[in-house]
Every structure is written in C-alpha cells, then in structure tokens.
Sequence to fold (355 residues):
Amino acid sequence: MSTAIRHITHAFAIAAILSAAILATPVDADEAPTDAATRPALPNALSDGILPQLHALLRLPENLQLRYPEAVPSTEHPITYDRILPFKAQEAIDRGYTLPLPFGVAVIGVENTQLQRITDVAVALGKGAPPPPNTPLRPLPFVTLDNVISKTRSKQVKLDAWILPNLNVFASLGKVDGRADLDVVVDLDAAFPPPICNPISPCGTVSQRFRAGVDAVTATLGVTGVVGWKNYFLSGTASFTDTLGKNSDTEVRSLTAGLRFGRRWVVFDDVLFAPYLGVSYLDYDEKISGVTRLNNAFPDGDSLDVRYTAQSTNADKVSAVIGLNVGFENGLSVQGEYNRNSNGDRFVLSATKRF
Fold:
C-alpha cells in the first residue's frame, strides 16, 4: 500500500507544481478591468472541447486569453456565475473569460500493445501434471520469460470536476482484460534435483511460447492543469491507477503523466475542432500468474507443467502523442488519441458529457 500512496503523492505533486506555475502568471495592471459592471463578458456557448477533461479558459492577461475567435464581447449583460465549482469562477468571468461546465462524465476505451520486461519469476514445476494450486512457488534461475508482448483493453467510466478555472480533478473505475504472450525457457537438467536425465543423455533446454490472461478491475485518480495563449493550449495531466482487490490472478498498477499542445478552431459555427500533439509517460506494472504446459518436454514424452508468477513492466515509458478533440454546443465532446513508441502503441477513444 505504501507504493500506491507514493505514486498518488507523485501524481498530485506534479499537478500542484503545474497549477502553481499557471496561477503565478503575472497580470498587467493596465489590462485589468476595475468595474465589474463594465467588464467584457463572453458567451458561455461552446465551452467544451479541448480534451474530455480539459476545457478551461484561464485567468491570464488580455493578450493571453484563450477565447473563441467568433466570440464578441458584450458589456450590456454581465454574467453572474451561480455554480459551486470552480472556485474563483466569478473572478475569471468578470475578467472576460468563458468557463466550462464544472462537472463531467465520460466513457473511455483504451487499446494498449507494448513490450514488457519480466522480473521476480517464481515457479513450481510438475512432470506430466500441473503442480497443485497451493504448491509453494520459488524464484528459480533455470526459468526465464523472454519477449513478453502485452495486449490489453480497458473500459472505464470517469467523473471529473473543475475545482479551479485551470485545475481539474478526476476519478475513474475500469475493467482491464487481455493477454501477455511469453517465451518460456526452462533448463530441465537444473530444474529437478535429483536430475531426471543422466549426464550422458541430458534433457537440455526446452522453449515454448504461451499466453497468460490479464483480467483486473482498476481505479484511477488524477489531476489536470491547462493554460492557453490566444487559440493555443498547453495541458498537463498526471494520474495513478491501481487494482481493486488482490484476489485476482492479475494485478495492474500504472503512473501516467503527459503534456499536450494544440490549437482550436470553431467550424460550422457551433463545433469546436482541436487537434494536438504531445508526449506521454506511462509506467505500467503488471503481476501475472497462471499455469502453462510444455508438451513433449522430456525424452519419455511427458509434459512439463509450470505454475508461475512474475512481475512485468513496460520497456518503453515515453511515447509521442497525436490526437483530436471535437466539442459540441450541447456539452458533448469526443476525443481520439494515438500514442506510439519504438516497442508499442496505445489508442484512446472517449466521449464526455458536461453538466
């Protein structure tokens, strides 16, 4: 549990630093309006759309406002903000900024393929039959797991809220399933004391690829900060994911952080179009366990049955990002994002509704 707490602390620390940097942006006194009744107010239409969790127009000097190109300031009807969140919303609106609707619910799907590095292998071996489930597992040097390719799918439901005009917090509950393809290599002569085979006719090494299942229920906590300049935006996100319950054969834990930079356009008068590029960091840890059979492993034709556990983590932590978000006036937005590195890729598709 201490590891989970440490990861959560790291995620919130990243977001806190980002938020502090954003809030520390200086405001030119010559640009700050002095009378709320005469300050320009922008319409709140089309307030959704940068990313499912990134929609804020921030408290920044006039020349750094991120506002819709077609928005026309009006001084006749000042806007009164009557929602609980975000804090400091009225101050931001008085300065002429539109705000997103404060609460959102999203459905998210993720496809992830990556090369995994294996550590902490522990096994129990059986000749001709699997070891019983309660057989003690031992870390043994004669078993190695190579070339592990993990392919997983995740379906999530996410809730989020803007607590400041430029700071969003979110939580999600999801289901991860898939497989990990492993090459199992066993030195049969070292595996069984006393040796099953004799020195004159050794058993040798047996190798076979097998597939381990991935199945876990996960929870995620995260924070997002965003800053804009004219029609451009820069966002930063940090989140931590852990497995709910420890009785599953698979345990998944990950720390994610990322930066995204893009531009937004209004098309067809009422649709927000926001492509972006970025970089993401994913530290994905997985505990896998199960039983596999290596057929005809011994000279007498018997199988070698391996009950195993192993820890795996993704080989490449950093990926390039390209994505697109489309937002609509009714508070609905749809996002697609592709992450790519030298040994894997990740695709994210989500739909969000704000209230």
User: Anything to note?
Assistant: The radius of gyration is 26 Å. The chain has three helices and twelve strands. Helices lie at 2-23, 89-94, 188-191.
